[in-house]
Amino acid sequence: MSAPPPNIVLLGFMGTGKSAVAKELGRRLKRPVVEMDAEIEQREGMAISRIFAEKGETYFRARERELSRELARSGEKIIAAGGGVILDPANVRDLGCNGLLVCLTARSEAILKRVEKERHRPLLEGGDRLATIQSLMALRSRFYDAIENRIDTSDLSVDEVASRIIALLSDYER
Ligand code: S3P
């Protein structure tokens, strides 16, 4: 039996376009899309912000860890990871064992514009959002920079990003 086709795993900071691009890739490649945040919300029966508030970030990270392990055993999916999945190297190793890893990046100002009106990201609540984005990005840059395939989405449309990933996929499968 031949191995299942690899997953496409979108990593990257909040607001870099992971969800929108995953949706577009799912549509174009006719593959199922897994939004890790949405999957955890469904399993826990509550929104991410409530999980953070009531159960804490450590609990949430453990659910991400569990789900990464599970997804490593599947194939053919488009996976949009939460922005913090990358913080645990074991997650990256698992998701990469049958998956093309792509890290989406964007300038902090572009991210601010995209997340400005949203209220579902607990790590961005309260205080100066741009400053929070910049300091979190600085703390995490070594994790994001370690992914070989990176696409800066600041000035690209969802369509353009999806096309670049499809090109990467044909190289990966060759
Ligand atoms: C987080 C990113 C969020 C969500 C949670 C924590 C992070 O996902 O998992 O709020 O630590 O960067 P998105 O990147 O989909 O916003």
Question: Which descriptors would you attach to this protein?
Answer:
174 residues; 5 strands; five-stranded parallel sheet; alpha/beta; single chain
In short:
The chain is an alpha/beta fold and 174 residues long. The protein has a single domain (7-173), classed as Rossmann fold (3-Layer(aba) Sandwich). It contains 8 helices and 5 strands.
Q: Helix amount, in percent?
A: 40-55%
Overall geometry comes to globular
Q: Helical segment tally? A: 8
The tally of strands reads 5
What does this structure look like?
The structure is a single chain. This protein is an alpha/beta fold. The chain has one domain (7-173): 3-Layer(aba) Sandwich (Rossmann fold). Helix content is 54%, strand content 13%. The chain contains eight helices and five strands. The protein has helices at 18-29, 36-44, 48-55, 57-71, 89-97, 108-115, 129-145, 158-173; strands spanning 7-12, 33-35, 78-80, 99-105, 150-152. The chain has a five-stranded parallel β-sheet, sandwiched between helices. The longest helix is centred in the last third of the chain and has 17 residues, at 129-145. The two termini are 19 Å apart. Shikimate-3-phosphate binds next to loops.
